[in-house]
Backbone:
C-alpha cells in the first residue's frame, strides 16, 4: 500500500505531539500550497493544527480534509473500515453472493474514491486562489464519495421510485414485479459472467437502446455459426416493447441467455474476444492482476512505469493517464524520514547540527 | 468569484464517465453547453431511478445528476450542418469534453488537431474505455467491460463461487475523478501559459490505479488477488451479517484486538472477550468461520440500525448495509446537504447528488436542472454563437437540431 501510493512523494518524520514538532510543521505550512490530512475529525484541532490556526500562518493555504463520514456530527466520530464505509454509501448492497450476502470488492476501494475527489477539490481551490489570492478548506467524506458507485440508485427513495432497490434482481423477483434492465452495463442483470473453454468472460446480453444492438450483433454471429434458434430471432433493441406487448416473455429471454451460455462454452477466451471485436458485440476477459502487467495495450501506452524503491524496481500504474503529458519519472515511496535533511535543511534552513539535535530528542 | 467563472465548455460526452466531468465544471461556475442527439438517446436517460417511478427519458435521476447546471443543445452530428455548429462551439470554448469511441471525432471532423487549428489554446478531454491509442483502442464497451479489463470483475465474489464483479459500470465511477483532475490541472496550466492540450483518459487505466497495491503484491510475492468474500488479511472480523427483518444486513469490522474484545464483550460477556482462540488476529483468522457464526447468531434477531448504534457507541466500526431508503434518510448525508432538489419542467422537481467536495469559500452552486431535449437551443445558437434567426430556422428545418 505504501509503495503504491506514496511513490513520487518526499517523506519527512515529525513528532506532532511535541511543541517543536508542531513548530516545524507550521514552518512547512508557511511555504505550502496544499495540506492534505486524513486524521480523525477533531484530531488536528486537538494538536493545535486545525484549519484556523494554519490559515493564520498562511492565508493562501488550501487545507484538504478527508474523513470517513465528514467532519461534523452526527457521524463524525463513527469508527470506520473500508467495508463499513462501503456499506454506508450504498454500493455494498447490490453485490450479492449466491446466498444473498452483500459482498465488497476484495481490494479496499472506499478511500481511493475519496482521494480522487479530494485531489479534484484541492485543484479547484488552487484555481480559486488564482482568482482571489485566498486559500480555503476543502472537505471530503468517503461515504459521500462512494455513493457514486451505486449508479444513482441511492437516490431512488428521494424521488419516490419505490421498489427500485439496489438488489432489485432478487427483490423484484420476490415481489413478483420483474422489470427489464435497460442499462448498458447489466447493472441489474444477474448473469454477466460466462464460462468458456478456458476461463470466464464478461458480457451483458442487454436489451433496449443502450445495449440491444450488441446483443443483435452477438446473435447475428450465432447465425453465422448456424446456431441461432428461431425462437430468439427477435430484435434486442425493440425487446422492451415486445415484452410490454406480451410478444416475448421474460422466461424466453432467460432461455436465450441460457443458449448464449451453451455457445460460449465451446470457445476459448481469445477466440471470443476476437469475435467480439470483429462482429461488434461487447465482451472482455476477466483480467487478473498478473494479466494486467502482461497486457500489450498497457505496455504500448506505458501505463506501468518502473519505480525504484530500496534497490528494487516495481512496475507501478504511475502516469494515471498516459495522454496527460505527466511524463516526469516517479520516485519510489520514501522510507520513514528519508527526506528529513533535504526538506528541513534546504527548505527550512535548519543546520545539520540543529537537525541532529532534533533527531536526538525524537522530534525529527 | 466562483472558481471557474468565465470558463466555456463544449460537452460532447455521454452516459456517465464523460458527462460527470462537465457537471463538476458547471457546479463551480463554468458555462457548459451539453450537446446530444434526440435521435440516439443517451443511455443515462433510460437509466432510473425516475421521479415517482414514471419512466421518462427527460426526467432521469441518472441523467440529471450527470448534467445538472448545463445548457442543452440538440445536434444530429451525422449531418455536416450540425457539425459546423459543433465547430463554432469548439471555437468559442476553452474546453471540449468528449467520450466517443476513439476515431469517431475524426470522422466528424472534430478531432483535436483540427479543433486546435481553429482554437489554438483549446483543452480537449477524450474519455474512452482503453484510451485513444494502443492495440486495444477500438475495444468498446460500457463500464462492466472496463471493470473486466481493469481487473475488478475478478475480485468480487464469495469464496468458492464464480466471481460476481462490482455493481454496474465500475470504471464510470472512477474515470471522471481522474479526468476532472487532469482537466483542472490543464486549466491551471493554461492560465499560466496560454497552452492548451489534449487529455487522453482511459477509463480502464484510471481504474487500474485503484488496485495498484494488489499489482505490487503480485510482483513482490507472486500472489494473484482473487475474490475473498468480505474477508481481509489484516482485519478480523470483517464481515456482513444478517439482521432482523426482510433483507437487512449490517457490516462489522474489528481493526484491533482491543476492538474485538469490546465487540466480544457485548456479544458474549467476559467469556467470549477472554476466549484465547480469538484474542489475536492470527487466532481470529484461523477460526474465522466459527467467529463469524458467533457474530451472525448475535445479529440475527436484532435490528440492523440498533447493532450499528450499539457497536459505534463502543468504537467498533459497524454500519447498516444501506439501501436507498437508508441513504436518503441518513442523518449524516442530510446534514451535509448531499442531495439537491431542483425544480424540473417535467417532473416538478428532481433530486441529484451534490458536489462531492465542500469548498468553504467558493462552494458549488446548482443553477438549473439538466436539459430536456433542446431546451436551450435558442439561447446557445443566438446568445452564445450569435446566429441570426434565419440561420437557426434553417438549421431546424433541415433537421440539424434533432
Residues:
Amino acid at each position: 500500500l505504501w509503495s503504491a501510493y506514496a511513490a513520487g512523494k518526499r517523506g519527512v518524520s515529525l513528532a506532532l505531539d511535541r511543541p517543536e514538532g508542531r513548530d516545524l510543521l507550521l514552518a512547512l505550512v508557511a511555504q505550502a500550497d496544499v495540506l492534505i490530512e486524513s486524521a480523525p475529525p477533531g484530531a488536528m484541532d486537538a494538536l493545535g493544527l486545525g484549519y484556523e490556526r494554519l490559515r493564520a500562518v498562511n492565508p493562501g493555504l488550501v487545507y484538504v480534509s478527508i474523513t470517513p463520514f465528514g467532519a461534523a456530527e452526527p457521524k463524525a466520530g463513527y469508527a470506520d473500515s473500508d467495508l463499513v464505509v462501503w456499506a454506508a454509501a450504498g454500493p455494498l448492497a447490490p453485490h450479492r453472493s449466491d446466498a444473498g450476502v452483500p459482498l465488497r470488492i476484495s481490494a479496499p476501494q472506499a478511500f481511493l474514491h475519496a482521494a480522487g475527489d479530494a485531489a479534484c477539490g484541492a485543484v479547484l481551490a488552487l484555481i480559486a486562489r488564482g482568482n482571489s489570492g485566498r486559500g480555503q478548506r476543502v472537505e471530503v467524506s468517503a461515504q459521500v464519495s462512494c455513493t457514486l458507485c451505486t449508479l444513482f440508485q441511492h437516490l431512488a427513495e428521494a424521488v419516490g421510485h419505490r421498489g427500485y432497490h439496489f438488489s432489485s434482481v432478487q427483490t423484484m423477483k420476490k415481489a413478483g414485479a420483474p422489470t427489464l434492465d435497460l442499462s448498458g452495463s447489466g447493472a441489474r442483470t444477474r448473469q454477466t459472467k460466462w464460462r468458456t473453454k478456458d476461463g470466464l468472460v464478461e458480457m451483458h446480453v442487454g436489451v433496449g437502446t443502450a445495449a440491444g444492438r450488441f446483443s443483435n450483433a452477438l446473435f447475428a454471429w450465432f447465425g453465422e455459426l448456424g446456431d441461432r434458434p428461431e425462437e430468439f430471432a427477435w430484435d434486442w433493441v425493440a425487446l422492451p416493447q415486445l415484452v410490454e406487448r406480451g410478444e416475448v416473455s421474460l422466461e424466453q429471454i432467460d432461455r436465450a441467455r441460457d443458449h448464449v451460455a451453451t455457445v460460449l462454452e465451446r470457445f476459448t477466451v481469445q477466440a471470443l474476444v476476437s469475435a467480439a471485436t470483429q462482429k461488434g458485440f461487447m465482451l472482455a476477459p476477466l483480467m487478473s492482476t498478473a494479466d494486467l502487467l502482461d497486457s500489450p495495450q498497457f505496455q504500448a501506452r506505458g501505463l506501468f512505469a518502473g519505480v525504484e524503491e530500496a534497490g528494487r524496481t516495481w512496475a507501478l500504474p504511475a502516469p494515471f493517464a498516459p495522454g496527460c503529458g505527466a511524463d516526469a519519472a516517479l520516485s519510489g515511496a520514501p522510507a520513514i524520514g528519508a527526506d528529513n535533511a533535504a526538506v528541513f535543511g534546504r527548505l527550512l534552513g535548519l543546520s545539520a547540527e540543529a537537525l541532529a539535535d532534533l533527531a536526538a530528542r525524537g522530534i525529527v | 468569484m466562483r472558481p471557474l467563472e468565465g470558463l466555456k465548455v463544449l460537452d460532447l460526452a455521454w452516459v456517465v464517465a464523460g458527462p460527470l466531468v462537465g457537471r463538476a465544471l458547471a457546479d463551480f461556475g463554468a458555462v457548459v453547453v451539453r450537446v446530444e442527439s434526440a435521435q440516439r438517446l443517451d443511455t443515462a436517460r433510460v437509466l432510473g431511478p425516475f421521479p415517482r417511478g414514471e419512466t421518462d427519458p427527460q426526467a432521469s435521476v441518472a441523467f440529471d445528476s450527470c448534467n445538472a447546471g448545463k445548457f442543452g443543445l440538440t445536434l444530429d452530428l451525422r449531418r455536416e450542418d450540425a457539425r459546423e455548429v459543433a465547430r463554432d462551439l469548439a471555437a468559442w470554448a476553452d474546453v471540449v469534453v468528449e467520450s466517443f469511441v476513439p476515431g469517431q471525432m475524426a470522422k466528424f471532423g472534430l478531432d483535436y488537431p483540427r479543433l486546435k487549428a481553429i482554437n489554438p489554446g483549446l483543452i480537449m478531454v477524450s474519455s474512452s474505455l482503453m484510451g485513444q491509442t494502443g492495440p486495444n483502442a477500438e475495444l468498446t464497451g460500457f463500464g462492466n467491460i472496463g471493470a473486466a479489463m481493469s481487473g475488478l470483475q475478478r475480485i468480487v465474489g464469495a469464496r468458492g463461487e464464480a466471481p460476481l464483479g462490482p455493481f454496474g459500470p465500475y470504471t464510470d465511477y472512477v474515470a471522471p475523478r481522474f479526468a476532472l483532475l487532469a482537466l483542472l490541472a490543464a486549466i491551471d496550466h493554461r492560465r499560466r501559459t496560454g497552452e492548451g492540450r489534449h487529455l487522453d483518459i482511459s477509463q480502464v487505466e484510471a481504474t487500474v490505479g485503484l488496485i495498484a497495491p494488489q499489482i505490487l503484491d503480485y510482483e513482490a510475492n507472486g500472489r494473484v488477488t482473487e475474490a475473498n468474500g468480505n474477508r481481509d488479511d489484516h482485519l478480523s472480523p470483517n464481515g456482513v451479517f444478517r439482521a432482523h427483518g426482510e433483507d437487512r444486513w449490517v457490516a462489522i469490522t474489528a481493526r484491533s484486538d482491543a476492538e474485538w474484545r469490546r465487540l466480544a464483550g457485548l456479544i458474549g460477556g467476559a467469556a467470549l472477550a477472554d476466549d484465547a482462540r480469538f484474542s489475536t488476529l492470527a487466532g481470529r483468522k484461523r477460526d474465522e468461520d466459527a467467529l463469524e457464526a458467533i457474530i451472525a447468531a448475535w445479529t440475527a434477531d436484532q435490528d440492523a440500525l440498533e447493532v450499528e448504534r450499539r457497536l459505534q457507541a463502543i468504537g467498533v466500526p459497524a454500519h447498516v448495509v444501506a439501501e436507498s431508503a437508508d441513504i436518503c434518510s441518513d442523518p449524516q448525508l442530510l446534514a451535509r446537504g448531499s442531495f439537491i432538489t431542483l425544480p424540473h419542467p417535467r417532473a416538478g422537481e428532481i433530486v441529484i447528488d451534490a458536489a462531492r467536495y465542500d469548498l468553504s469559500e467558493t462552494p458549488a452552486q446548482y443553477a438549473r436542472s439538466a436539459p430536456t431535449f433542446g431546451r436551450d437551443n435558442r439561447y446557445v445558437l443566438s446568445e452564445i454563437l450569435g446566429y441570426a434567426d434565419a440561420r437557426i430556422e434553417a438549421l431546424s428545418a433541415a433537421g440539424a437540431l434533432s
